[in-house]
Write a structure and sequence with these properties.
flat; two-stranded antiparallel sheet; mainly alpha; about 80 residues; about 5% strand
């Protein structure tokens, strides 16, 4: 399967066999002296902190109002071009 990738993006793509990928992850983890502290400090890796406390009923109510918007936001916007 071929996927259309712009020429400028080819340098950002690395292909590995699954076993090689897993081995690389284990090597990376073994070489991490801070036990992942640097990675956990990144904004996308921090634990979610709520700005207040909600009761179970309040949390359920918030979920009911948020789910339709999240569902719409997660719908695919465009199709990926795939050539065989």
């Amino acid at each position: 399967m071929h996927v259309a990738i712009p020429a400028a993006g080819l340098g950002c793509v690395l292909w590995r066999l699954p076993g090689d990928f897993i081995a690389a992850i284990f090597e990376w983890a073994a070489e991490d002296p801070a036990d992942g502290a640097t990675d956990r400090g990144k904004a996308g890796r921090q634990k979610i902190r709520l700005l207040g406390t909600l009761s179970n009923e309040g949390q359920k109510g918030r979920e009911v109002t948020m789910v339709p918007g999240l569902t719409e936001a997660m719908k695919p916007k465009s199709k990926l071009v795939v050539r065989a």
